[in-house]
Amino acid sequence: MWFIGWKGPSGFSASSTAQQVTHGIDGTSLTAIITGASSGLGLETTRILAFRGVHVVMAVRNVKNCIDIKESILKEIPAAKIDVFELDLSSLASVRKFAADFNSSGLPLNILINNAGLMATPFMLSQDNIELQFATNHLGHFLLTNLLLETMKKTVRECNQEGRIVIVSSEAHRFAYSEGIRFDKINNESEYSSYFAYGQSKLANILHANELSRRLKEEGVQITVNSLHPGTIVTNILRHHGYFNAVANMVGKYFLKNVQQGAATQCYLALHPQVKGISGEYFTDSNKASPTSLAKDTKLAQKLWELSVSLSNTK
């Protein structure tokens, strides 16, 4: 269990915090985009990367609210470099606008952290008529990553420094539908399970990371892509399940990770020199872990890529 704190090969454990896993790392030459940066793991990741000198772009749905959050970070870290851009991952139009705005800003891009997510929502469709968890957790991030890749490649060439893409998945990928991805039933409301659909979207996150990693390796591009399970944490992700949310908040502090511990693995993958050159892996507790056989299925990953291209109307 996390509170026992067994250290893995990295020297870190489930009890390590984001501040601990980034100790002594200077990120002043780096620029990062973090989705879902205004709360929970995204906010803590923003705070830690800014503390380490990284120029952070907070990609959030509510810019007005996030301005206040930005100001609170600046009070704590006066030297922090933070920008706020609007991004609604459930809208492909919003993803395209965000990418266009960022790409035209002239900013470099060293790190992309696909952190935002929804968990176990009732059946709903996105603005593009795609099941909401799949649309938000996977498809929006898929399109965002593709649209930002050229800027990241340009940054790598100009800085001669490895780029990193970090995709937040979950151990819930082990509890997807039995076939993994329901390619022909993404929008099937009659057979919808909020928890299996969440697992499907988290499985998609790992498959996306693996397939993108494979493609970048084939191109010889110096960009790594890894996925991760942050741990079981009390955040607002359970807001659609009042009873479970209440219980989690009551007992979570005794049995679950706190946000500082939950953000550790994504901060580790974003900044730590131990991860240099490592790509296409799945991590938990700042150490390599083994996902399910479905998550390692290259044919499934390629099929998901083709579906994602089709649904997002991108190349």
UniProtKB/TrEMBL annotation:
InterPro entries (UniProt xref): NAD(P)-bd_dom_sf, SDR_fam, TIC32
Q: What is its EC number?
A: 1.1.1.330
Q: Does the keyword DNA damage apply?
A: no
Single GO MF descriptor: very-long-chain 3-oxoacyl-CoA reductase activity
Q: What class of enzyme is it?
A: oxidoreductase
Can the keyword Oxidoreductase be found in this entry's annotation?
yes
Instruction: Could you list this entry's UniProt keywords, alphabetically sorted.
Output: Oxidoreductase
What protein am I looking at? NAD(P)-binding rossmann-fold protein
